[in-house]
Structures are given as C-alpha cells and as structure tokens.
C-alpha cells in the first residue's frame, strides 16, 4: 500500500495544511513533511489552491442494479460517485427486485465492495415491493451484512399513515430511520410538473406543492408522537422548508435533504417540453429555490443529496408525459452547491463539509464517513478546485446514462482527487 | 428558420390576420367548379394521428388535397396508458419518406413541440391538438368564424366579447382560443365551475366567471366546450344534471344573448350535457359553418407554411431554449 | 415576421415612387390610353355582348373597372368586371416566401363561353399572364381570351403578346417601370421609368 502526502491543502476551516494518509487513516496533519516509511512508497500530491473536504456522502443515489443495468450498474454509478468526490453512497431500494430483503441488500452491498470506487450503503425498502401495504423485513436487513439503517420506499410515498407510524416505531429497535418520499398520491395522479401558472399554460398535469407539504407535516407530527427519527427526502418547496423548520423548533428529530437541481433550476425549463427537465419532485419556482437555499444555509435542511437518477436515452428522448422522471447528479453536485451556496456567500466550505459529508453520514449511521479531517480519522478526502470552470458535457461521464440537466451549462469547480480510506479512487479528475 | 405552428402564441397579430385574410380568399374555392389549387403540388403532407379524431384529420386532408399536396395518413396506436409506438421512430420514418409537413395530433401535451425541436425531423410541424395543451388551427377557424359574423370594419375583433364555457382545464381549444382571440383584440371570458379552470388562469390575461347567466347578456359570442361525463367520476362536478343546470346552454339561457350574438362549439358535441339540441340546431348556431371554415383556415396555414421558399407565419425558438 | 406584401408585376417598383423618375405617361395620357383600349375592345369584339373583364391584382383591377366604365359610356352596356389572383399559379412561387393572396372575384355569370379580356398594368416577361391562363383554366372555359395592358415594356420570356396596348415602352432590363393609379396610390397618377 502506498502512503500519500497531500501538501498545501486548504482545510474546510480555511487553514492550509499538509496531510499524510497512511494505513487508511490521516496519520499526520500540519506543516511537517513526512519521511517515507521503509518499503512503502510515498506519493506526493500538490494541493495548492485546492479545498480538502471530508469524503462526500450521498444519502440518495439510484444505482439501478439489480434490474435496470441498461441505465446504471453499481460499478458505473459508484465510478460516477467517486468522480463527484463521494466516498459513500446510499443506494435506493427501488430496484428490480426491490431491495426489501436481506438477500438483495447484501447483493448490492457486495457489488459495491467489489467495485471499490466508494462505499455502497444499501437502503432498505419500508414495504414489501414498495407496495405500501406490508412492512418489509426491516430487522433482517438491519442485521444483514449490509447493516441497513436507512429505510425508504423512495419513488413512492409511504402514504398510509398507520403503516408510516408503524415503520417509524419499528426501526427504533436498531437505530434506523425512515426516509420519506413525500408525495400525496391522490393529489399527484398523472402529475408531470410543478403545478403553477406554467403547468396550466403548457397543459401538463400539475404536481402541487401541497402534495409534498401535507405528507411532511403529517410525518413530522407522527414522528413526534411516537418519538422516532424521520428523514425527509428531496424537499422541494418553500412550504416544506417552513414545516421542517417548525418541527425542528419543536425539538423533534427530523432531518431533511435538498437536491442540487432544486437549488439551481426552475420549472420554467418545462416550457421546452424536453424531458431532461422532468424530475420527481418537479423543478419548482424561483421562490422555492430561494427558500431551499436559505433553509440549507440556516441548517433547516441538513443535507444535500443528489437523487442521482440515471435513465437510458430512450426513456428521455420522447414525449414529456411518456418520459421517466429523474436526472443524474453525482458528478455535478459539488459544483452546483458551490455555484448556488458558496459563490453566493450563503455557505462556507465548513458548511459544505457538514451538509455533504458529516450530516448525511450521521443520519445514515455510517461510522467511517463524515468524520472531521483530523489525525487518526479515516482518510476519506476529496480535493476540490473551486477556481476551475467547466462546461458540462453529458458524454464525459462515468455514468451509463446521460440525462444531466446541466448539459452545456458552465459550472464552477472540479473534483481533482478522491481518497477512500487512504486509497485514491480519483486522481487528476480521472478514475484510478 | 421558423417553420412550425405549435401554439396560438406563435402567431403575432400580423401573422394571424394574414392567415385569416388568406383563408377568406380560399373559402371561395368551395364555390368553384374545380376545388383545387396548384400551390402545394409535389409537396407531401403527413397526417400523423396518435389519437382518433376523424373530423380534424378529414379537415386537414381536404385542405392539403385542395392545395394539390400528396397526403399520407398515418394513424399510430398508442395512448397515455400503453406507450405504444415511439414518436421518435415514427418521426424518423416520416423524415425518411420525405414529408414536407407533419400534421400531428397526440395525446401528450407538447408532443408536436418535441417533434419540431428534438432534432428527429426537418419537416414543418403543425399542431393538430396535443393533450390538454393547444389546438391552434381550431382557434384560427373559430377566429375566422367570429370575424365573418362579428368583425369590425377593420376586420379585427377589437372589443368583441367572447365567452368560452365548460371544461377549460382539459381543453386545448380553450387555451388556443384564449391566446389567439386576445391577440386579435377580443375580450375573452372563461366560464366554468372553479374545478374546471386551470391553476394560475389569473395570469392568462382573460376574465373568468363561475356564473354563466351573468356573462351571457354581455357577450357577442358564446363558445361551448365539450364536457366529458368521466370528469364527474373525478369529482370535478357532482352530477351531469347539476352541470347542465349551471353551465349548459339551453333555449332559456340562449334567450339572454344579445340579438347579434352567435353560438359556437368545436365539436364533437355532447347534446344534453353542455348544449341542448334546440340550441345546437338554432339559427344562432354557427357550428356547421365552423366545420366549413376549418378547411379554408387549414388550407391557409398549409399554404403559408409550405407554399413559398420559407414559411410566412409563426415559429418557435430554436430547440433547447426555454421560453 | 411581417406579412409579405403583395407582389407587384415584375418591372414595377412602388419604392421608386418617392424619387419619381421620368414620366412616360401622365394622368391625361393614361386616360387617353384606356379610352382607346375600350374602343379597341369594342371594335375587336363587335360590341361588348359577351365580354368579361378580369383585372389581375393589384393594379389590373382598377384598370379593368376604368375600361368597363368607358365601354358603358360608349355602348351603354354594363360589362361584368372581376379580379383574378394568380399568386398560387406563379412559376416562382417556391422561390420566395409564401405570399399573401389577393382577391379573386369572378362575376356572377362566370366566364364559360364568354370572351375574357385580362387586364394588367405592365406586360414584361409574360409569366404573370401564363399564370393567369392557368388560373382561368380552373375557373371555367371562356370562348376566347384577350389581353389588355397599359404598358408593354418588352423582354418577353414566353410566347405571349397583348391584344390591346396603351403604350409600347422600349426599356432596358435594369430600368424600373412604375404605374401609379389614383385608386391605390398617394402619388400623382402616371407611369414613370427609372
């Protein structure tokens, strides 16, 4: 195993330091230069001008395997994650078969280990087959080799309030959390885009904000009532931010995530009828975008999660109502956060480290991730050049899919290197 | 190059007036012994219908044939439930066959827009009704009919009051008419129960009302929209009887209209639901004339888009750009 | 996109009206020419019994009406007057943006079995008249067709000649001939060359 010396990296707090990565941990941190150990190579990386962040953790990734290997595999999805600066991703359960048994989650977990680009932490389904009717064997998944702690029917809402209550209660036994896809199904039948002035004009069925907010409010009340943890996936509306803020003020154990695309893009893009911009929950108004940014800045929203949702070309190269929901996001997340939060002065790099590494690791109970950059901590590190500028080219991706909404857009920043427990997975922006 | 008619919003007032003036000339063709003009000889017009609509298809077919175009009818299966034939593959096929224009009817809002801008085809695209979005040639024929009956001395519709009544929410006819009639200077009032008005309709620049009886005496034309019975099951209104009582046009209501006012319907009618038979067949009704005018207006659109080296009307921004 | 303007007969140029150019027919000369054409039509057809005048828009139409009025003065007979738009029959239709149509107005009696006198302002390449013959073909079958023009400026590209000519005007192809009529134009009536 090679040791690594990173020189002149700027830590999230702003201080410049050299880091020695040895045996999977940060062996030293400071200005002193490390001498090579006997028989162990020492590779030096010049990180002048680069930010060193604790390896990013995604709470919300669709790796599509098993079942839709034409859209993404664990191998390609985690490669994209590493290129985006991630050292761990939570793989959502809406695969085929659904990750609702110990067998499936262990399979996904093992595929992640074999790929080796980043840690894959499977998310377990809350209900059997995402059917919303019976609880899946949550305990078996928790006890499996995959050690599942996050449970979600993402893609579908656990709409039945009694079932949601039971799930919230049940996962307490193993310190789990239910991550809710908040979408009232009856209010969103056939929904295609944000319900607003534009949906009326375009004749596309609206997805009203209230359909998200009503579920979040209900779930916050339920979580408070039974004293459980609740995590809210992809918060997209100003009203949702308001409700989460209220729940936190009450002292309830509620966390929430926002997606990069909801921090940058608005529903105006639907006017192109280009399904690249079709996502669930949908792109919202500029006011919603502003509220999400403010919520992320003040900590109401704990986490930025990608909701990376790869789709094969044919599922997007069609009529809008026939197209699949979702956008890729792993390789652009940090750049979008820089553009929307850092460059606007709403969040510093320490804040980015908290929202994109520490908080998601904490919520997912991933002990080995999201740790501060300190001696003895796991050497999960992302080196990021905030001064770079790039034009997004959808063909230059490690993902199998190309449905990025940022195609042709100029975004700031570039992930230069990613280290997973002291081993580089990405160097000079390319996979190792 | 601008070469499509996808939305009534694509038409400036000059564009719209040119279409109507052209249609006016072409309408007289129906009275001539030879109902044919050579303008589109050698051009191929494809009627691409992903949704059954015999009357619209026949109207476009007659229009294209009277202009001497070759017409290919392509009825593709596929609904919102079963995705069926891919629009893209169909477009590529038509492109390979050398279609100069594709007249597209589709269940999906925005499908003609995709056809025009996704880079699948270079044909000129005419929206013949897409989902719950728009039906611009229907609006043009309605405007043409209105102009013949109510036109100002300048031929415009300035200050004329038109009430559009019924299921505005699901109506592509209402959307296109609201846009076009406003462009032509008319004052539009949408009349429907609140459940059947689109979210955000306040921004459309038209009046809205829930009270048909209050609107009728002030209107110069009343356009009744089809209301599907199935809407009742989704609780848009409680019963057919209640709907008809509040928003249907019967003889008693028609009596509230001004002397000169006309009654329109884009068809197909649900007699007994939104309109009674005696109203539909009365001399106030111009419903049959609308059909005749449809051919002339569609001829005008096809001629202006295809007749010259480049289209004389309408267009959309280049692909990819948000509007 | 602005509406396309009606296509003037080749060789005329309304733009030139501001800078007038050389006057080749003034208002009195135009009137004399039309009077002579009216007499010639009557002579050629031994009266005006079966004559129908069809003006080619734009300027052929008022000219046709003026000829009809003179015929009425001389013979006390009302000659049917109509308009025949040739836009869709033009052989250069595909070479320019689609053009607005101009009115076609066939008199109630139709043209079957009648003697149609086509009336236009300037005869140049002859292509407009060819289009008019095609257009007429779709309207009916006249017994005979004759052509009356205010100005014949030469340079024919098709085997077409006028039966009645107000003035033969030798021109070169780069010159522009403009006809202005009081019914349509603000400027002084007359024919100019530039």
From TrEMBL, chain A:
EC class name:
hydrolase
Entry EC number(s): 3.5.2.3
Q: How is the cofactor bound?
A: Binds 2 Zn(2+) ions per subunit.
Q: Which residues bind substrate?
A: 62-64, 94, 280, 311, 325-326
Q: Which PANTHER family match?
A: ALLANTOINASE
Catalyzed chemical reaction(s) = (S)-dihydroorotate + H2O = N-carbamoyl-L-aspartate + H(+)
Binding-site residues, Zn(2+) 1: 60, 62, 154, 307
The task this protein performs is described as: Catalyzes the reversible cyclization of carbamoyl aspartate to dihydroorotate.
Please list the residues that make up the active site.
307
Q: Which organism is it from?
A: Marmoricola endophyticus
- What's any GO biological process attached to this entry? 'de novo' UMP biosynthetic process
Q: Where does Zn(2+) 2 bind?
A: 154, 181, 234
Q: Where's the Dihydroorotase catalytic domain?
A: 51-238
Q: In which pathway does it act?
A: Pyrimidine metabolism; UMP biosynthesis via de novo pathway; (S)-dihydroorotate from bicarbonate: step 3/3
Q: What is this protein called?
A: Dihydroorotase
**HAMAP family, alphabetized:** PyrC_classI_B
Automatic annotation (TrEMBL), chain B:
Protein known as: Aspartate carbamoyltransferase
Keywords, A to Z, come to:
Pyrimidine biosynthesis, Transferase
Keyword Transferase included in the entry's annotation: yes
What are the residue boundaries of the Aspartate/ornithine carbamoyltransferase carbamoyl-P binding domain, all occurrences included? Answer: 3-147
Q: How does it assemble?
A: Heterododecamer (2C3:3R2) of six catalytic PyrB chains organized as two trimers (C3), and six regulatory PyrI chains organized as three dimers (R2).
Q: What is its EC number?
A: 2.1.3.2
Enumerate the residues binding carbamoyl phosphate: 55-56, 105, 135, 138, 267-268
Give the domain of life.
Bacteria
Pathway(s) it belongs to: Pyrimidine metabolism; UMP biosynthesis via de novo pathway; (S)-dihydroorotate from bicarbonate: step 2/3
Task: Return one Gene Ontology term, BP aspect.
Answer: 'de novo' UMP biosynthetic process
GO molecular function per UniProt: amino acid binding; aspartate carbamoyltransferase activity
Task: Please describe what this protein does.
Answer: Catalyzes the condensation of carbamoyl phosphate and aspartate to form carbamoyl aspartate and inorganic phosphate, the committed step in the de novo pyrimidine nucleotide biosynthesis pathway.
Enzyme class (EC, first level): transferase
- Tell me the residue numbers annotated for binding L-aspartate: 83, 172, 226
| Family according to the record | Belongs to the aspartate/ornithine carbamoyltransferase superfamily. ATCase family.
Known catalytic reactions:
carbamoyl phosphate + L-aspartate = N-carbamoyl-L-aspartate + phosphate + H(+)
Residues in domain Aspartate/ornithine carbamoyltransferase Asp/Orn-binding? 159-305
Under the cellular component aspect of Gene Ontology, which terms does the record hold? cytosol
UniProtKB/TrEMBL annotation, chain C:
**One GO biological process term:** regulation of DNA-templated transcription
Q: Recorded GO terms, molecular function?
A: uracil phosphoribosyltransferase activity
Q: Pinpoint motif PRPP-binding by residue range.
A: 116-128
Q: Which catalysed reactions does the entry list for this protein?
A: UMP + diphosphate = 5-phospho-alpha-D-ribose 1-diphosphate + uracil
CDD domains to which the protein is assigned, alphabetical? PRTases_typeI
Q: Which HAMAP family does this UniProt record tie to the protein?
A: PyrR (MF_01219)
Concerning its family, UniProt says: Belongs to the purine/pyrimidine phosphoribosyltransferase family. PyrR subfamily.
Q: What is this protein called?
A: Bifunctional protein PyrR
Originating organism: Marmoricola endophyticus
């Amino acid at each position: 195993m090679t040791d690594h010396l990173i020189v002149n990296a700027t830590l999230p707090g702003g201080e410049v330091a050299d880091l020695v990565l040895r045996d999977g941990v940060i062996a030293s941190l400071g200005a002193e230069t490390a001498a090579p150990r006997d028989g162990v190579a020492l590779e030096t990386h010049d990180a002048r001008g680069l930010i060193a962040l604790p390896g990013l953790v995604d709470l919300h990734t669709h790796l599509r395997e098993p079942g839709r290997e034409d859209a993404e595999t664990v191998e390609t999805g985690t490669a994209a994650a590493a290129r985006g600066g991630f050292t761990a991703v939570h793989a959502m359960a809406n695969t085929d078969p659904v990750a609702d048994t110990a067998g499936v989650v262990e399979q996904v977990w093992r595929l992640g280990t074999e790929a080796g680009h980043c840690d894959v932490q499977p998310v377990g389904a809350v209900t059997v087959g995402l059917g919303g009717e019976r609880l899946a064997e949550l305990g078996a998944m928790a006890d499996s080799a995959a050690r599942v702690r996050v449970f979600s029917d993402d893609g579908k809402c656990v709409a039945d309030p009694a079932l949601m209550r039971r799930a919230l209660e049940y996962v307490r036994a193993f310190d789990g959390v239910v991550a809710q896809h908040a979408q009232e199904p009856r209010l969103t039948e056939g929904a295609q885009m944000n319900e607003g002035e534009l949906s009326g004009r375009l004749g596309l069925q609206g997805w009203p904000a209230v359909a998200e907010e009503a579920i979040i409010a209900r779930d916050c009340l339920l979580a408070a009532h039974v004293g459980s943890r609740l995590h809210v996936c992809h918060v997209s509306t100003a009203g949702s931010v308001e409700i989460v803020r209220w729940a936190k003020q009450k002292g309830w154990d509620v966390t929430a995530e926002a997606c990069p695309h909801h921090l940058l893009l608005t529903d105006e893009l639907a006017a192109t009828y280009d399904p690249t911009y079709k996502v669930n929950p949908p792109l919202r108004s500029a006011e919603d975008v502003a509220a999400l940014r403010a919520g992320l800045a003040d900590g109401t929203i704990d986490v930025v999660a990608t909701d990376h949702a790869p789709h094969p070309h044919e599922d997007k190269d069609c009529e809008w109502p026939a197209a699949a929901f979702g956008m890729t996001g792993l390789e652009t997340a940090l750049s979008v956060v820089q553009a929307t939060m850092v460059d606007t002065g709403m969040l510093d790099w320490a804040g980015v480290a908290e929202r994109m590494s520490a908080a998601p690791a904490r919520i997912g109970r991933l002990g080995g991730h999201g740790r501060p950059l300190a001696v003895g901590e796991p050497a999960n590190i992302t080196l990021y050049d905030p001064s770079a500028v790039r034009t997004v080219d959808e063909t230059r991706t490690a993902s199998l899919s190309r449905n990025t909404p940022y195609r042709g857009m100029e975004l700031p920043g570039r992930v230069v290197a990613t280290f997973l427990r002291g081993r580089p997975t990405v160097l000079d922006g390319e996979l190792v | 190059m601008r070469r499509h008619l996808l939305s009534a919003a694509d038409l400036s007032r000059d564009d719209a007036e040119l279409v109507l003036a052209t249609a006016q000339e072409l309408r007289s063709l129906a009275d001539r012994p030879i109902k044919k003009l050579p303008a589109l000889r050698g051009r191929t017009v494809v009627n691409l219908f992903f949704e059954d609509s015999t009357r619209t298809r026949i109207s476009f077919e007659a229009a294209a044939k009277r202009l001497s175009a070759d017409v290919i009818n392509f009825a593709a299966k596929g609904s919102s439930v079963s995705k069926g034939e891919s629009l893209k593959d169909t477009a590529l096929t038509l492109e390979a066959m050398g279609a100069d224009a594709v007249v597209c009817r589709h269940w999906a809002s925005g499908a003609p827009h995709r056809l025009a801008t996704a880079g699948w085809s270079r044909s000129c695209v005419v929206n013949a009704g897409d989902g719950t979005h728009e039906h611009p040639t229907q609006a043009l024929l309605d405007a043409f009919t209105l102009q013949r009956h109510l036109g100002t001395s300048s031929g415009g519709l300035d200050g004329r009051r038109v009430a559009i009544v019924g299921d505005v929410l699901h109506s592509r006819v209402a959307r296109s008419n609201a846009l076009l009639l406003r462009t032509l200077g008319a004052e539009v009032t949408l009349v429907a129960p609140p459940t059947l008005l689109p979210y955000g309709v306040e921004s459309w620049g038209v009046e809205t009302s829930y009270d048909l009886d209050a609107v009728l005496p002030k209107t110069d034309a009343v356009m009744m929209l089809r209301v599907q019975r199935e809407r009742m099951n989704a609780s848009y209104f409680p019963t057919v009887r209640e709907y008809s009582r509040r928003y249907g046009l019967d003889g008693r209501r028609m009596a509230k209209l001004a002397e000169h006012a006309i009654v329109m319907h884009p068809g197909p009618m649900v007699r007994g639901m939104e309109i009674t038979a005696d109203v539909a067949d009365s001399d106030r009704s111009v419903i049959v004339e609308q059909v005749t005018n449809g051919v002339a207006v569609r001829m005008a659109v096809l001629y202006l888009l295809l007749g010259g080296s480049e289209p004389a009307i309408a267009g959309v921004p280049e692909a990819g750009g948000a509007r | 996109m602005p509406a396309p303007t009606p296509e003037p007969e080749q060789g005329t140029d309304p733009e030139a009206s501001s800078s007038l150019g050389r006057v080749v027919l003034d208002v009195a000369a135009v009137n004399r020419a039309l009077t002579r054409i009216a007499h010639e039509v009557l002579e050629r057809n031994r009266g005006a019994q079966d004559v129908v005048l069809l003006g080619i828009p734009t300027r052929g139409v008022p000219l046709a009406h003026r000829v009809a009025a003179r015929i009425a003065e001389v013979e006390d007979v009302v000659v049917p007057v109509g308009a025949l738009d040739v836009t869709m029959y033009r052989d250069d239709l595909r070479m320019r943006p689609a053009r607005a149509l101009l009115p076609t107005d066939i008199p109630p009696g139709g043209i079957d079995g009648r003697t149609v006198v086509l009336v236009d302002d300037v005869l140049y390449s002859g292509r407009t008249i060819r289009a008019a013959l095609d257009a007429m073909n779709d309207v009916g079958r006249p017994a005979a067709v004759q052509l009356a023009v205010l100005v014949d400026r030469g340079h024919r590209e098709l085997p077409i000649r006028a039966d009645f000519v107000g003035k033969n005007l030798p021109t070169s192809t780069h010159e522009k001939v403009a006809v202005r009529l009081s019914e349509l134009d603000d400027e002084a009536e007359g024919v100019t060359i530039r």
